Amino acid sequence: MKKLIIRNLKLRQSSLILYLILLVISPIYHLFIDKNTMIGGFFYSIIAVIIMFISLFDCGNAFRLQFKLGGNKSYYFNHSLPFSAKEQTDAHYLTTVIMSLAGALILLCYYDIPASGEINGVNMTTPLFFIAINLIGHAIAFPKCSEIRRDFIPYWGFVVVMNLIMPFVITFVMFGVVRITKPAKMTDSFINNFINGSGILLLILSLAFFSFTYLKQLKRIKKAKQLH
User: Fold this and answer.
1) Residue boundaries of the structural domains of the chain
2) Is residue 56 within 8 Å of residue 126, measured between CB atoms?
């Protein structure tokens, strides 16, 4: 399985190299770059675009790895390799976890750069949301096997739903809570607590769903092995 994980990470090496560069320059960014100056603003803009790219497109790490492996058509080829179905499943799930944590670390390092939409200056995409979305994507798009994606869940559709529709739903729910509880005013603290709370809840649900799908796949593999 170790060889499979190394292979998977090599397939995503461009993202990992980008993460490493961002991690190394993070102290420089926080100590020396002033976005209010012309040069600082230039570098800030470049980093902001990269962070937004990571937030948008790396929220579907399971999809991106499957593309690198050849998509649905490569299923039989992948399973002709000298690795068991369980080893391949374990490697795919661990790769999703590793890439999700790595991306979340970068978002955490650049916490002051909006990764997507904002409400009263509070960033909607937090590291918790990023990890949760990655785990959910793996679970709902690859329920039977990590090498076969559901045809009706395309990568671009997943990205749009998770980065555009979901923040809208969260915002709608938040305003609904505000309307019911009728606080004196919707402060930044209230918004921040609500978004962080939503992120924690979503992370818990995604972990449960991710684990359930993994165990279900292991059960299917064990059953298939017994039949043969």
Assistant:
1) 2-227
2) no
